[in-house]
Amino acid sequence: MGLLMPVSNDPKKDREIFLKILTMDEDGLLLRKNKNLTIKELADLLTPSERKKFIDDSGKRVTFKKGVSKVEKDYLHELTFNRLSYDEKLKNCLRPENAPELPQKAWEEINAHLGTSATNLQELTRELGEKRFGHAPIVGDCFSGGGSIPFEAARMGANVFASDLNPIAGLLTWASLNMVGASEERHKKLSRFRRSVYDKVEKRIREWGIETNERGDSANAYLYCNETVCPEPSCGYSVPLAPSWIIGQPSRTVAVLKEDDVGKRFDINIITNASKEEMALAESQATIIDTNFVCPKCGEVNSIASLRKTRRPDGSFTEGLRKWEADEFLPSPLDVFQERLYCIRYEREYLDDSGKTRTERYYRAPNKSDLEREEKVERLLRERFEDWQTKGYLPTSRIESGYNTDQPLRERGWTHWHHLFNPRQLLMLGLFMESIGELATNKYELVMGLISVNGLIDRGSKLCRWDSGSEKQQQTFYNQAFNTLFNWATRALSATNSAWFFDYKSTDIGTGTEVQLSDARTVSRMCDIWMTDPPYADAVNYHELTEFFLSWDGGMIKEAFPEWYQDSRRILAVQGTDQSFNDSMIDIYRNLTTNMPDDGMQIIMFTHQDVSVWADLTLIVWSSGLQVTSAWNISTETGASGINKGNYVQGTVLLVLRKQDSENTAYLDEIYPEIEQEVRAQIDSMRALDDKDDPNFSDADYLLAAYAASLKVLTSYKQIEDIDVAYELSKERKSGDESPIEQIINQAVKIAYDYLTPSGFDSYSWKLLTAEERFFIKGIDFETDGIKKIGAYQELARGFGVTDYKELLASTRANQARLKTASEYAMRGIGGSDGFAASLLRNILAALYQCIRAENTLSGKNWLRNEVTDYWNQRTLIMELLDFIAALGEFDDMEHWKEEAHYARMLRELVKNDGV
């Protein structure tokens, strides 16, 4: 919408209309308001007179006074809602995309300003596109991933083109546009299809009786562990492996190992409502500690890596784990790591005393009947295994070697994707796939089945850990890796509901949509706007991770989309940060530029904070025939819970690019003043947008803006002196080497730091301070914002050009970095000839130390009079610095500055009233 809106002579009104369209203005927030404050919250926001008139707080509960009408209550709810901060209002609001349609009055104001005649967002998008491009806008994304960008663009009324190299990304994007973006009627049909598949699987599992015990109770979860023989020759016990035998913290359920000397193994007893002693025993019996195996029988400790061997029939070992064969789904008897079921959670229904149906869960160790059901599962799977693989219901593909995909082979010997699942998981998943194949009648149902199955396999592999705190099974991808486990959980069918019947609200899009599988370098679709969130300097190997899903989806993807390939095309994936990566990015963005009209635009979303990465991005944009024409630092409306403080980038830089049309050459002596002007303009625009009482932007965000501003200037020229773009991108640099572009961007960062004057200082006073003094003051600002990462101070020192910054720090420990107080400095280093030791601020800290030591403020004043050169002309600056320190006493988490703040307040008055 920001790209489509015309610019008027009234930028303030432009912004008001923009926020109104997005329901982010005051009226829009009221429109989105979907719940009221509690009476107590409401009462706390009223004035004393309002509270006296409407609120009764004489009893235990705060209530409205008798006689207060509904109209008055509604008025009070609106009144108090409007007194909340923006972030507080959001807690009581729908998200913008779920807001009701804007009222007619709002559209009248929007249309009057924009010269349109729209009655909804979709009509407005099309009209503005026609004004700008002559037709409804076409938005493209060649890194579509999960489909967020094309889906939102389509929902707003644009025609969209989406592509991705990876078939799973293509599947998700297609599903977003054609299923989440489907009519309510299609949504209902797909819901009925999912229900029919589930019912068919449930019927088969009930008939087999593999999840029901002898009491008729249904299984909910199965807990498995690996088991290995202790390698010590004098021991030879078969030991179950787990880093903890605590099964459930809330239910106090534990597994306790008990020696079976006859079989040289351990029985595993399950105890619920365990005593403190039993809980402690279970903790102490962990057989995996860090990266070591601890035998509970002989007590010997061996590294896990040393266990990874292959056992020969004669009992000897060879190095490295045996590689599993393609037709296997269980470990061989000679494998070092066996698999053992050690606990089952069952559910039973009963009637309570009032006649209501209740559900009780209980854990137990597997008995003979449970183990017979395990054998039946293995037999049922074996009967179907070959047939299901032939039909594509079970994976057949080998795990290709890669950074992430080598892990299962190295740690368990698994060579094929189905090895990551145990027989019970394979049998249930195979049933789901078979039922989808038999019941699906069209592309929509096939895709719905695949999306649902993908939810099941993410939550149903041997990589799913059991969380004893919540007593729930977690997903495979709790991070971006294939983490093999020594104990894991398997869901019974009754526990798959949330994964299979995932909920979504359909929105009938009704615009033109196209989804392709394509290398971004070869896309040939003309789009007015290309909007991309590229895989820039990204360490996540999505192409490898998605092969986990492709091993299941491939056959049905081919059936649903015959024109699509079914592999990850990992060789073509854009990855890394080397020369080939840079060349790929140039090819991609040059291709997008070719497939964009002369009046077209591109958006690149970017959040990286590494200057060298920004320097490479500058060269890539330059080489692609693009120039940055705007840079917007966006603070997303959805709050990032738990990271409002700290050195986090709370915004994303959106670079707006157009085709490069300049033939001008610039010289460095011309570039620097232009960059300084642009950095200041960028920061000023952000400050003008920011809420001074509740800031959205941190210093990290302003620095990103400085990076972006430098790009805007650099890419506006065809050539800058004799900088060779191709050479700079290909040049290998030693640590500490800076390219000419990095030097320019670092200068932009320094400009930004110089311009970001802390509260309490005017720009003139700030410029009078040395680099070390500014570093110290901004560092204290970091502390008040809760920033404790040493990396933040490193970045700050680099920005100010301070080399010996560690001398100023009281702590350099991870997440505990902070600056020294006056007391911690004492008189060390005072009186040096340069740097911080000779600075005015250092003398002020020494004066405060004198005050604290003597418990007398006069000592501090005398120090300043005697030691500060030109004391009388420096008094204004001294008072500003003392004001800054005095203000630290108002912060709860700055307790270590409390004494200094106290004396700074008094010393400031002495300096102010000092006379000749």
What descriptors fit this protein?
916 residues; 34 helices; alpha+beta
Task: Summarize the topology.
Layout: H1 11-21, H2 26-32, H3 39-44, H4 48-54, E1 55-56, E2 63-64, H5 70-81, H6 86-90, H7 104-114, H8 121-133, E3 138-141, H9 148-155, E4 159-164, H10 167-180, H11 184-208, E5 218-229, E6 238-240, E7 246-248, E8 253-260, E9 265-271, H12 276-284, E10 288-289, E11 292-294, E12 301-303, H13 304-307, E13 309-311, E14 317-319, E15 338-351, E16 357-364, H14 368-391, H15 406-412, H16 423-439, H17 443-458, E17 466-467, E18 472-473, E19 487-491, H18 497-500, E20 513-517, E21 529-532, H19 542-545, H20 547-560, H21 579-594, E22 601-606, H22 611-623, E23 626-635, E24 651-659, E25 665-666, H23 668-689, H24 699-714, E26 719-720, H25 725-730, H26 740-755, H27 763-768, H28 771-784, H29 790-800, E27 809-811, E28 818-819, H30 822-825, H31 840-854, H32 857-867, H33 871-886, H34 898-912
Parallel strand pairs: 3-4, 3-21, 4-20, 21-22, 25-26
Antiparallel strand pairs: 1-2, 5-6, 5-15, 5-19, 7-8, 8-9, 10-11, 11-12, 13-14, 15-16, 17-18, 22-24, 23-24, 27-28
